[in-house]
Design goal:
Radius of gyration: 25 Å
Strand content: under 5%
Pfam families: BPD_transp_1
Order of helices and strands: HHHHHHHHHHHHHHHHHHHHHHHHH
Structural class: mainly alpha
Family: Belongs to the binding-protein-dependent transport system permease family.
Number of strands: 0
Distance between the termini: 52 Å
Helix content: over 70%
Largest sheet: none
Number of helices: 25
Protein name: Iron(III) transport system permease protein
Subcellular location: Cell inner membrane; Cell membrane
Membrane topology: Multi-pass membrane protein
Length: about 525
C-alpha cells in the first residue's frame, strides 16, 4: 500500500507530461499540414508580386475578365435562388406532407449526386444539341447541384420542434404564414450552407460549361493553360476566381448571421404530423416526378441510347479495364493520403480547441473552397519552376488530391472523434500505454467508421474529378473521367457512354451512404 501511495503522485505527472508532449507533436503536425495547404494561395500572391503590378493590373482590368465576371455573377445569382426554391419545396413535400411514396422521392432527390456534372451536361447536349449559353448553364447547374441544398434542408426539417409551429398556429397564423415566420427562419443555416456549396461548385466546374459553350473563369483558365501555357495570364484569372470564392464565403457569413437556433430544454419527442395535401396531391406530385425525369431520366435515357447505338463495339475492355484500375488506385491512394493528413487537425479540433485550432482549421477550409483548377495550376507552375522532376508524377497528383479534398476527410473525422470519449484515452494512458499507443487503441479505433466514410467521400470526389487530373496526372494516365472527356471531346458520344455508366455505378453506393447518414442524424 505504501509503495502504491508513493508511486501515484510521481506517475500521474509523468503521464500528464507525456500527454502534453504528444499533444504538442500532433499540434505541430496539424500546423505544418495547414501551412502546406496554404501553398496555392501563397503561390498566387508570389506570382502577382513577381509579375509586377503594372502587368497584373493590365491582365486583370481588361474586357475579357469583365465578361467572365459578368457570366460568373449571373450564373450564381440566377442558379442559387432557383436551387433554393426547388430544394425547399421538395424537402417539405418529402418530409412534411403525405405525398405518396415520399421515401422514394426523397432518395430520388439525392440520387443526382451520383451523376457527375459533366455527364449531366453531356446527356442534355446529346438530347438538345442547340442548348447553349447562360440559361442552359442555369438549367444543367440546378439539375446537377440542387441535392447539395436538398440534403441539409431535409435534415433540418426532420429535426425541427413541432411545438413552435403549433404555438404559431394557435395564435391564429395560417399555414403559409407559419411556414414563412417559423419554419423558414429555422432553415437559414441549412440554406446558407447548401447555397455556399452550390456556389463554390459553380465557380469550380469546368466540363459542364464546356459542353454548353458557356465561358467561366475555370474554362478560361484551363483554355489559357492548354493553349499557350501562359503562366501570368492564367494565374491572374485564378486570382480573380479566388477573390470570387472569398466574396462568396463572406456573403454566406453575413447572411447566416449570429442568431440562436437552439432552444433551451429537450423539446418535444413527437414527430411533426404530416400535412394532408388533399386536392393539391396531383399538382404537388408533379414536382418530384418532373424533377426525377429531368435529373435522372434524361441522363440514363441518353446514356442508354448511346450504348444501344454503339453496340458491343464501344465496350473496349482493353481501354476500359486500365481506366477503371487507374481510377480505383488514384481514388484509394488519394483518399488514404487525405485522411491521414486530416487526422492531426481533426484530433486537436476536438481534444485541444482554442484560438490556434480555429485558425489552423480555417486554413484547411479556405483552401478546400478553392477550385481544383487553381490548386492544379499552382502545383504545375511550382513543379515546373522549382521541382521539375516532380512535374506530372504520381506524388504531385496525389498531393493535389489531398489539398482539394482534405476538408471532406476532416469533417467526417472530426465528427467521429467527437463521439469517442476522451476518458478512454486517459484510462489507457493510466494503464501504462504511451500516449500514441493509447490514442491508437481507443480513439482511432472508435473513429474508424467515420474515417472510412471520409475516405469514401474523398474517393468519390477523385473518381469524378477532371480538371486537376488532366493537368497533374503522369503521362499515360487515363482515368474514367479523362477517357470520357476524351471521347466526348471528339463528339464520339457512343464511345463515351460506357465510361459515364461506370462512373455513375461507382458513385451510387456513396450517394446512398450520404442519404442513410442524413437519416441517421435525425434518428430515423
Amino acid at each position: 500500500m505504501a509503495s502504491a501511495i508513493d508511486l501515484t503522485p510521481a506517475g500521474l505527472p509523468a503521464a500528464a507530461r507525456q500527454r502534453r508532449r504528444s499533444t504538442s507533436w500532433i499540434t505541430l503536425a496539424a500546423a505544418l499540414i495547414s501551412l502546406i495547404a496554404l501553398l496555392p494561395l501563397a503561390f498566387i500572391a508570389w506570382t502577382a508580386i513577381q509579375t509586377g503590378w503594372e502587368t497584373v493590373i493590365a491582365l486583370i482590368f481588361r474586357q475579357r475578365v469583365g465578361e467572365l465576371l459578368v457570366n460568373t455573377i449571373l450564373l450564381v445569382v440566377v442558379t442559387v435562388p432557383i436551387a433554393i426554391v426547388l430544394s425547399v419545396a421538395l424537402a417539405w413535400l418529402t418530409e412534411r406532407s403525405d405525398l405518396p411514396g415520399n421515401r422514394l422521392w426523397s432518395w430520388l432527390s439525392v440520387a443526382p449526386l451520383a451523376i457527375p456534372a459533366f455527364v449531366h451536361s453531356y446527356a442534355w447536349i446529346s438530347l438538345v444539341p442547340g442548348l447553349h449559353g447562360l440559361w442552359a448553364g442555369v438549367l444543367v447547374s440546378v439539375i446537377a447541384y440542387f441535392p447539395f441544398l436538398y440534403l441539409p434542408i431535409a435534415a433540418a426539417l426532420r429535426r425541427l420542434d413541432p411545438a413552435l409551429e403549433d404555438a404559431a398556429a394557435a395564435l391564429g397564423l395560417g399555414p403559409w404564414r407559419v411556414f414563412a415566420r417559423v419554419v423558414l427562419p429555422q432553415l437559414r443555416l441549412a440554406i446558407c450552407g447548401g447555397s455556399l456549396l452550390v456556389g463554390l461548385h459553380l465557380l469550380a466546374e469546368y466540363g459542364l460549361y464546356v459542353f454548353i459553350r458557356f465561358d467561366t473563369f475555370t474554362t478560361a483558365i484551363v483554355d489559357q493553360f492548354q493553349s499557350t501555357f501562359n503562366g501570368p495570364a492564367a494565374n491572374m484569372l485564378a486570382a480573380v476566381l479566388v477573390a470570387c470564392c472569398f466574396v462568396l464565403l463572406g456573403v454566406e457569413v453575413i447572411v447566416r448571421g449570429e442568431e440562436r437556433y437552439a432552444r433551451v430544454g429537450s423539446g418535444a419527442a413527437r414527430q411533426q404530423q404530416r400535412t394532408r395535401l388533399g386536392r393539391a396531391m396531383l399538382p404537388c406530385l408533379l414536382l418530384p416526378v418532373g424533377t426525377a425525369l429531368l435529373t435522372l431520366g434524361v441522363p440514363f435515357v441518353t446514356v442508354g441510347r448511346w450504348l444501344l447505338a454503339g453496340g458491343a463495339d464501344i465496350w473496349r475492355w482493353d481501354e476500359i479495364a486500365p481506366a477503371f484500375s487507374q481510377t480505383l488506385f488514384l481514388a484509394i491512394a488519394g483518399a488514404l493520403l487525405a485522411t491521414i493528413a486530416a487526422m492531426p487537425m481533426a484530433w486537436i479540433s476536438i481534444r485541444a480547441p482554442g484560438p490556434l485550432q480555429r485558425l489552423l482549421e480555417s486554413c484547411n477550409y479556405i483552401v478546400g473552397s478553392l477550385p481544383g483548377v487553381v490548386i492544379a495550376l499552382a502545383l504545375v507552375t511550382i513543379t515546373v519552376r522549382v521541382a521539375l522532376p516532380l512535374y506530372q508524377t504520381l506524388f504531385t497528383i496525389l498531393f493535389g488530391y489531398a489539398l482539394m479534398f482534405l476538408p471532406r476527410a476532416l469533417v467526417s473525422l472530426r465528427a467521429s472523434i467527437a463521439q469517442a470519449p476522451v476518458e478512454l484515452e486517459r484510462a489507457a494512458s493510466s494503464l501504462g500505454r504511451p500516449p500514441l499507443k493509447a490514442l491508437w487503441a481507443t480513439t482511432i479505433r472508435l473513429s474508424a467508421p467515420g474515417a472510412a466514410a471520409g475516405m469514401a467521400m474523398v474517393a468519390l470526389g477523385i473518381t469524378n474529378e477532371l480538371t486537376a487530373t488532366q493537368m497533374l496526372a503522369p503521362n499515360g494516365t487515363r482515368t474514367l473521367a479523362v477517357a470520357f472527356w476524351s471521347y466526348s471531346g471528339e463528339i464520339d458520344y457512343a464511345s463515351a457512354a460506357p465510361y459515364a455508366l461506370i462512373m455513375v455505378a461507382i458513385s451510387l453506393p456513396m450517394t446512398l451512404m450520404l442519404y442513410v447518414q442524413s437519416k441517421r442524424m435525425a434518428g430515423r
